[in-house]
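Incident log, structure service

09:12 report received: a user says their structure output differs between two submissions of the same chain.
09:20 pulled the input from the user's history:
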Amino acid sequence: MPDPVRYSPDLERPTPDEAEVQAGMIAQFEKIQGITLKDYGRAVRGVHAKAHGLLTGRLTVLPGLPPALAQGLCAAPGSYDAVLRFSTNPGDILDDSVSTPRGLALKILGVAGARLEDATDATTQDFVMANAPAFTAPDGKAFLKSLKLLAATTDTPQVFKKAFSGLLRGVEAALEAVGTKSPTVISLGGHPETHILGETFYSQVPLRWGDYVAKIAVAPVAPDLTALTGASLDVNGRPDGLREAVSAFFETRGGIWDLRVQLLTDPATMPVEDASVPWPETESPYVAVARIEVPPQASWDAEKVRSLDEGLAFNPWHGLAAHRPLGSIMRARRAVYPRSAGFRAAQNGCPIHEPRRLP
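09:34 re-ran on a clean worker, output below:
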């Protein structure tokens, strides 16, 4: 593998209209959350509103990492408590037969080190991921167009969303039969009906990896989990079928995942500002730097919903300066995510905090 590229501020190129674009995103999030507040009588997240599993476990840094990987969180051996939240991406809470991309938010507790300026009063490190190696839009301006569509369809009756999702799944199945995929079709509801625990999740957009730049991924490695990769899961007639499947798994078994890092080695083929470009794994493979272990547990109960779902916010700007988020999409998240979390806290009367320890 070529030597990784050292981080430089010149890798980012903000555009003059970013503040305007971010203000537009905030307005669309407020529209989505206003609609769902009226529908549910409580505030939910503007995206990834529906959780399917709330898990606690331990993340352990692997020994003997080479210098380019032994950075930030992984600079020295250590073991940390962690929270994992599995979700799907709409801002409204839909039956699982509306099949959309999946997300994993990871919060690591008790991480020492210099903090990002938005997170000086905490000791957590957040990573926010989805089950595709690249983002659906290249930058904030393009994503704002998609967000307007999401906001406009938030209150569409579920019967229409289910029918449309079924149509798109057929389109995506035909595409995959000839060896291709459509991120757009998948994002609109054409995601295959598969088990969520078999997924590999990616940051999709880059961040600093200490002296370097990387994307990260969380991949299942326990045989019971890898057996679920691509496994069909029938959720028709089961509005919370994904949640039920996660609960059934963790009643009797634990899970093991690798935290992996893909270092930037060529800015030409691995752009920082264009989030829609997958970084070629032939040029820089994902390499394991830590292991996440989750014991058998109840993955969904009233106390976990209160403390981990309603009481926490996951934001890539909660973390170490060594893992500073990079690129247009990440800069937009810095503006939008606190407003979304603040809306939930104000409407629900439930303070959102950064935990010092697991509940």
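09:41 both user submissions now match this output. Likely a transient worker issue. Closing.
09:42 reviewer note: The chain has eight helices and nine strands. Residues 198 and 228 are 4 Å apart (CA to CA).
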